[in-house]
Design a protein that fits this description.
The complex is a heterodimer. Chain A is of the alpha/beta class. Chain A has 21 helices and 23 strands. In chain A, the strands form 4 sheets. Chain A has an 8-stranded mixed beta sheet with strand order 7-6-5-2-4-3-16-9, with helices on both faces. A 7-stranded mixed beta sheet of chain A has the order 11-10-12-13-15-14-21, with helices on both faces. In chain A, strands 18-20-19-22-23 form a 5-stranded mixed beta sheet, with helices on both faces. By secondary structure, chain B is α/β, with parallel strands linked by helices. An 8-stranded mixed beta sheet of chain B has the order 2-1-3-4-6-5-8-7, with helices on both faces. In chain B, α1 (20-34) packs across α6, α3 (92-98) packs across α4 and α5 (154-160) runs antiparallel to α8. Classes of the chains: A alpha/beta, B alpha/beta.
Chain lengths: 605, 286
């Protein structure tokens, strides 16, 4: 079966045990693919363990831009005995399974329901070759070499990447790895020239892609922090926020900021508020379960009107839930966190560009209104890599919202819009008094109930201006849509790709997709977008339709159709497509001329 | 400067007559005046409790935060602007109970701050429950069988963690209190002063007289550089030593260890934005 992938979009999945070095293969391939001028997207799914289990990485290699997860697997590289079983639901007749005999033996012998996978297997002596090279650890570089060869990646690009990666480990190791890569290339050549079933992949590289940025969601947010003038981060390591902490810690020297690993999340947010009170733009990052400990600090930020940016990397809960999976379950948590009533803003980036601009904006909005500002991201978003032309650094500006105090300075002076010019200690001749108790204009404790009412009004009055500053939702697709899909945060690309697929096949369908990047408070255009639609469906990675509920609360508009997924995996393009087709009444009724499900082969269940 | 330079005219002091906090407040004003510290450069950080109200009654910048959490903002403030003098004012419940974890780890960080802990062995603000330092058999509406937990020993814990300055005073002895406050504030690094004080309303056991009778000063020849001896003296019960138990001036402070202050001392809010550097960092991802 010669394999021709006419779609010019290959979904390659690597699967093995934790600790086997799949990430090494991913890192090499991702760079190699981009440097060869192909577009790339990669995402991981992994277990919460350091060794063993089954982890997989999906790498899409494409002639056109790709930025979302697909269920489809065109080529599976199985690096462990459990790999095939782990991905059984995603393997189809068209999946090509490459692996060492010892890893694919049992799956080969098994006759699975419906059809046998016999013809899909290609055995390569990975382990034996690795042994010759010096041990099983070399299997990952051999595999990377074989795949690079299949993808027509020039050998010099591959060797260059191996050198970049292993030079620091010394010449001896580097030479062994280069040799392992060579062996992998030879293996790949053998597969391409095999008499029985030669493999040919047809992809078109573009030289412009070669020079694009290849970053993930964490990087984009990290750049946004630096662009927003972040000076202080205190946090406690917790998946999926740890990489963002690592990003800022590793850039602390060059960008003159402090990263401190706090003893717990409570200390983290209180420390950040202290630094912010003293004038340093401050941030904390955590997960939903870690944020649960920060809640009192959110109330403190609201009460003392001291800015802080709070990044919540969502993962399935309650409690510790599924530590390494993804979800959108913490919108309510962010929205309602902290006792009492005060103003806040919540962003939820969907694209890498959004993550950059919204994070930068978060610092400025926090400073401008002296409030906590949230960024809701998730495990899927943090880990996704794809190539983009640039991040709009030129367009971002930071405003200075600090004032030099005079002797009569009052930290909570009542003003026309609820915002008091913000002074900090040691800058001017005044005193800056902030208090977690209800306070008067000077910041001192008060139990005067009239002042109390004025202070509550002051803290909430800011919302008027905050709403004016809200980021508009993004409409993708037809302006004069009949059907409207709603999504927020990281579901942007899977929904968008599904919509583009549907629109290509059914250009007559008037379909729109409204994506929220600011989920609280809404931009004023939201209600109008909703009213305009004949039918609306919302997609969320949670079980209760938290965004749908918020939309109802804020606009009165009730969304009838919900597609909720909460098994810990992101939405795939295929399932979004299938569900949206159904929503549009185009399910299995034969209207579709070209059933996309057939392209993907029958999925084993 | 005079102590009255730190007065807050019109402050509505919420403490009972005879409260130990009143003498602590007076001693602190005197110590600061003698050290000539300007109120504009001072930040008082506190949590919740009767001690936590002290910053409202003294002239300076104030961060009156959450219960048990004062050390975290104090650390953040000092890290963001090392030019500020930061004094954390807390109570035994706030610091050793709710804030226990921060107490431990702040000592490990060693920020250059002063930590004054008003220790009256009872919860005052919430009206008379046991505190971490309440003594055994102390009866309260909640500890109906009397306290049977081991009292928390802040000095021994601090010395065990190699805190850089550990002292104890009695609020009723203002002369010594002022001197030790001054030493603590001038000390480079984290300085703990545990302050025995009476609670005239809720603690009828550990009264002013009780403290007078159950405390004595460490001898003049006590060597505060001897950690083992300091620890031994901190574990004495029945009769409680007062004075400076332990000093370790060799430790570098949290701020000194931060890379941002290696070459220049400018507070963080005055640092410039590095657009060019950021551009270069982004380009490295191409």
């Amino acid at each position: 079966m010669p394999v021709f992938l006419k779609e010019e979009d290959i979904s390659l999945v690597l699967c093995g045990e934790a600790g086997q070095g799949i990430q090494t293969v991913e890192a090499i391939l991702a760079q190699a693919v981009k440097q060869s001028g192909y577009n790339i997207f990669s995402t991981k799914e992994y277990m919460s363990r350091v060794r063993g289990g089954q982890n997989s990485t999906e790498i899409r290699v494409s002639s056109h831009r790709v930025a979302s997860y697909v269920d489809r697997i065109d080529i599976l590289l199985a690096l462990s005995s459990g790999a095939i079983d782990h991905l059984r639901d995603r393997i189809s007749r068209d999946t090509l399974i490459i692996g060492d005999p010892e890893h694919i033996k049992s799956a080969k012998e098994e006759k699975t329901a419906g059809f046998s996978l016999d013809s899909n297997f290609i055995e390569v002596p990975l382990m034996e070759t690795a042994q010759e090279m010096g041990g099983p650890i070399f299997a990952n570089v051999i595999a990377a070499g074989a795949l690079s060869c299949l993808l027509n990646i020039p050998k010099e690009i591959f060797d260059g990447l191996i050198s970049d990666m292993f030079t620091r480990k010394g010449q001896e190791i580097l030479q062994k790895d280069l040799k392992a890569g060579e062996a992998g290339y030879n293996m790949g050549k053998g597969l391409m020239e095999s008499e029985k079933a030669p493999i040919h992949l047809s992809l078109h590289g573009k030289s412009s892609v070669r020079d694009e940025l290849l970053i993930n969601g964490t990087d984009a947010m990290g750049f946004g922090c630096l662009a927003g003038g972040c000076r202080f981060m205190s946090s406690y390591p917790m998946t999926p926020s740890t990489p963002l902490q690592t990003f800022l810690a590793s850039n602390a020297h060059d960008f003159e900021l402090v990263y401190e690993q706090a003893e717990d999340e409570i200390a983290a947010i209180n420390m950040a508020l202290g630094a912010s009170y003293a004038g340093a733009r401050s941030i904390v990052a955590t997960s939903g379960s870690g944020f649960a400990l920060m809640e009192e600090g959110v109330g403190l930020s609201g009460m003392i009107e001291t800015p802080v940016v709070i990044c919540i990397g969502q993962r399935p809960g309650p409690a510790v839930g599924l530590p390494t999976r993804t979800s959108q379950e913490d919108l309510n948590l962010a929205l309602y966190s902290g006792p009492g009533e005060f103003s806040r803003v919540i962003f939820a980036p969907g694209k890498l560009e959004d993550a950059f601009t919204l994070t930068q904006r978060a610092f400025n909005i926090a400073e401008k209104y002296q409030i906590p500002v949230f960024i809701l991201f998730d495990q899927y978003f943090a880990d996704c890599y794809y190539n983009i032309p640039f991040l709009p650094l030129e367009e971002v500006e930071n405003e200075n919202y600090l004032v030099k105090t005079t002797p009569e300075y009052k930290r909570y002076l009542i003003t026309h819009d609820g915002v008091t010019p913000r002074g900090i200690p040691g800058y001017g001749d005044g005193l800056v008094v902030v208090d977690s108790d209800e306070h008067d204009e000077e910041g001192h404790i008060t139990e005067d109930l009239k002042i109390r009412t004025r202070m509550v009004d002051k803290r909430l009055q800011k919302m008027e201006q905050i709403r004016e500053d809200a980021v508009a939702p993004e409409l993708v697709g037809e302006d004069d849509y009949h059907s409207l899909i709603i999504g927020w945060g990281s579901t942007y690309w899977p929904i968008r790709e599904a919509l583009e697929n549907i629109s290509r096949k059914h250009p007559e369908e008037k379909l729109g997709f409204l994506h929220f990047k600011q989920v609280y408070p809404f931009h004023k255009s939201v209600a109008e977008y909703l009213e305009k639609a004949e039918d609306v469906i919302i997609l969320e990675n949670n079980a209760q339709g938290q965004m749908a509920n918020l939309i109802k609360l804020e606009t009165g508009f009730e969304i009838q159709e919900k597609f909720l997924k909460y098994d810990g995996m992101p939405f795939s393009v295929e399932e979004v497509q299938e569900r949206v087709m159904k929503f549009m009444g185009m399910g299995d009724d034969g209207i579709m001329e070209d059933d996309s499900a057939q392209d993907e082969g029958e999925v084993l269940k | 400067m005079k102590p009255r330079d730190f007065d807050m005219p019109g402050a509505d002091v919420a403490w009972c007559a005879g409260c130990g906090n009143l003498s602590i407040l007076r001693s602190l004003k005197t110590a600061l005046a003698e050290l000539e510290i300007q109120p504009e450069n001072l930040v008082f950080v506190s949590g919740i409790g009767q001690a936590g109200k002290l910053p409202h009654y003294i002239k300076g910048n104030v961060f009156n935060g959450l219960h048990g959490r004062s050390l975290s903002p104090a650390t953040g403030i000092k890290a963001a602007n090392p030019e500020l003098t930061v004094i954390d004012v807390s109570g035994d419940g706030c610091m050793y109970g709710e804030g226990g974890n921060h107490f431990m780890h702040t000592i490990r960080r060693n920020p250059d701050i002063t930590n004054l802990v008003h220790n009256n062995m009872v919860y005052g603000l919430t009206k008379g429950q046991a505190s971490p330092t309440s003594q055994r058999d102390f009866n309260t509406p909640l500890q109906v069988d009397g306290v049977f937990l081991e009292p928390f020993n802040p000095l021994a814990v601090a010395i065990a963690l190699n805190a850089s300055f550990v002292a104890r005073v009695f609020s009723g002895d203002r002369k010594q209190t002022i001197e030790i406050f001054k030493s603590a504030i001038e000390h480079k690094g984290y300085a703990l002063v545990d302050i025995f004080q009476p609670c005239v309303t809720f603690n009828k056991v550990n009264t002013r007289n009780w403290f007078r009778e159950h405390t004595y000063y460490l001898e003049d020849d006590h060597d505060p550089l001897d950690r083992n001896e300091a620890f031994r003296r901190a574990t004495e019960t029945g009769e409680y030593p007062l004075g400076i138990f332990y000093k370790n001036s060799k430790k570098s402070t949290f701020e000194e260890n931060l890379s941002i202050y290696q070459e220049e001392k400018t507070p963080l809010f005055q640092r410039k934005f590095h657009r060019g550097k950021l551009q270069a960092l982004m380009e490295s991802k191409r």
